[in-house]
Amino acid sequence: MISWRKHYKQTLIAIGLLLSTSASIYGQDGDPKNGEKLFKANCTACHALDKQVIGPPLKGVVDRVKTEGGVGKDWLHKWIKDNKALRASGDKYANEIFEKYNKTEMLVFPNLSEKDIDDILAYTTNPPAPEEKKTPEATAGTEATAASPADKTTTNIVIISLLAIAGLLVWILIKLRQLVKLGQSEDLAGLNETRVKSFSEIYQKYHLIGKGLIAILALLATYGIWNWIMWIGVYKGYKPEQPIYFSHKIHAGENKIDCQLCHSSAKYGKVSEIPSMNVCMNCHRTISEYNGKYMEPGKDKAFYDGEIQKIYAATGWDPQKAQYTGKTQPVEWTRIHNMPDFVYFNHSQHVVAGEQAIINSFNKKNPNNKIDVVCKACHGKIDTMNVVQMANDFTMGWCIECHRTTEVDMNNGYNKEYFKNLHDKLKKQYPKDGGKITVDAIGGLECGKCHY
Q1: Model confidence pTM above 0.70
Q2: More confident residue, 17 or 248
């Protein structure tokens, strides 16, 4: 009895030690799932798991620092929290890494707790397997396979029905021909021989009607030619393919990137120029593959990754060495919006001075299709376009109509001061709608404003 109790106590002690050891191991190793969230939030700007970005790949970093520098997790905790202080302390391995990666200083993360860092390191040691996602194409293919027998049956029924209708029509035509032959008497045959058979005879008989028809046709032809000429250069709906696929829906729509981050000249200059490839590389230097949730129908991750590689080829960026090679390839973009040489249009005037006035006017005229950015008034809802297209006519009449209906914002600092002495005069001159002043009242219809 005493022996049994002794072994029982030993067993309990052993189980307790095992549980405590397991708990301590788990606490030390961390939670990979939480580590994945922390990694994506704090590390992906400079690091990836399996390839070099700005910094080295971090998969297996715990084993790597142990092998290379003979250091462990405690060292990694110090490095992540404040690598600058660690280097200043004279740590040999820390300074070696700093020199190895071109003296690129890593950010400090004093906000991360010890557990947070353990979770991140657990993720780099044993990243969770990615969940399989069913693509729309696969789902559609399954549905198509399931529905294929029913589709074949329906197709056969339609073909048989059409053949039956065609046979019935042929039979009706034959019967009608027989009835016509039976009903044609000798008197009717003689009358057919006396009918007018030449065009000249018909014209002589009905020349007044003929001249009237010719006049109408001439007017219609003239109108058609005039209408065709008037629409030369109007390319609403034009959306050419570009040498590098760029989806505004992904960038401006899904990722909420401000238009002026790329098209900065629209706010400060006449032309909203095409951004240089260096602007693309501000982000894509660290984004070498597409991991977004949205995908355009017919496109997959491999397609988007391939387009990013085209950016690297154009700029001469080597993602493996994280440096430029100096070998660039100019990108021949196809221009979509292009004003004629005889038209002056200043983007900054509309984007800065007219921003709120244009937005208010557009939303008033389109209550069910409101906009939040001034660019959309002319270029359409660009944040929903995978391929950019010309959303409006961009004719002179279209511009004039906008100037006639857009109310000037007299409360902004510029207009309030500049038109200080003109307010009363303009209100008397334009008393409609309680003295509201539209762009045409301040020179918006003057020829010299746009044609110089």
Answers
A1: no
A2: 248
